[in-house]
Design goal:
With 125 residues, the chain is mainly alpha-helical. The protein has a single domain, classed as Arc Repressor Mutant, subunit A (Orthogonal Bundle), CATH 1.10.10.10. 70% of the residues lie in helices and 11% in strands. It has a three-stranded antiparallel sheet with strand order 1-3-2. A hairpin with a 5-residue loop joins strand 2 and strand 3. Helix 2 crosses helix 5. It is extended and about 65 Å long.
Length: 125
């Protein structure tokens, strides 16, 4: 394999590994919401929408583990926990916002294409 081809293969492997960690549906939505500022768990859950408590907790742990989110516990009674984006998380917010904007701007085109495809598929049978 040529050196340039090996480099490209190595990059594809790295990109694939990283994307699998950061591009889940809930990850993107949580990062987008946290882009507006720090949030407590229940407020975050309300803003994200149809996410279960278990999935949100898991998503936040993954984001914290990957360095995108910091969890701050305030020692009050009961303790208050707040989540915020780190510098890395704010950097990640740039492509997340771009992708979200692209989705909103192209939703009608995607739905039209999906409908045409489904119509073609059902018409071929």
């Amino acid at each position: 394999m040529a050196p340039d081809q090996q480099t490209e293969t190595d990059h594809c492997i790295l990109i694939g590994r990283m994307l699998s960690q950061v591009t889940g549906k809930w990850t993107m939505l949580v990062v987008r919401v946290l882009g507006r500022g720090p949030s407590r768990f229940n407020a975050l859950r309300r803003e994200v929408g149809e996410i279960s408590q278990k999935v949100l907790a898991s998503t936040l742990r993954d984001l914290e583990g990957n360095g995108f989110v910091v969890r701050t516990v305030t020692p009050t009674k009961p303790p208050q926990v707040e989540y915020a984006l780190t510098d890395l998380g704010r950097d990640f917010l740039v492509p997340v916002r771009s992708l979200a904007e692209w989705v909103v701007n192209n939703a009608a085109r995607i739905e039209t294409a999906r409908s045409a495809y489904l119509e073609q598929e059902t018409g071929d049978k």
